[in-house]
Amino acid sequence: MNASTPLPLKGSALKASGFNRARLLRGALPGVSLAVLLITIFIMQPRAMSYMGMNLMLNLAVPIAFATIAQMLIITVNDLDLSLGSFISFVACVAATLLNQHPVLGCLALLGCIAVYALLGALIHVRNLPSIVVTLGMSFIWMGGAVLLLPAPGGTAPQWLQG
To answer: How many domains are contained in the chain?
Structure first.
């Protein structure tokens, strides 16, 4: 070997290529998971492969994504919120009833919901209460309010909100 021939890197090059491969696999995981899930759904229900089937499946993707992000933010501070699903149900019931019939009252109700949720977080923080217990109790309150507003499934979002 002469002086111009580079020596092969043993440890650092292998570690870098392994790191890049792990990073690539981690980045591909959501897409691969979605593909596996869709393939499984299409095998079990071939009619879901149509435009209407995909529309029905992905119709609620945005609210679920927002709920996931909200729960992720709560988990980052080592807490757990068991009332998030009930809160979303209550807000949907407010949107289907009050926003349709009385838009100003509906907007005030939504602002009140946000204020109550913020006060709940402040109460948990200031009093150093276990969030799992407080949010579990609050989930029953949100769900009760949703049932009082809309006892049976139904309702639609207002046309001005859909537009």
So the answer is: 2
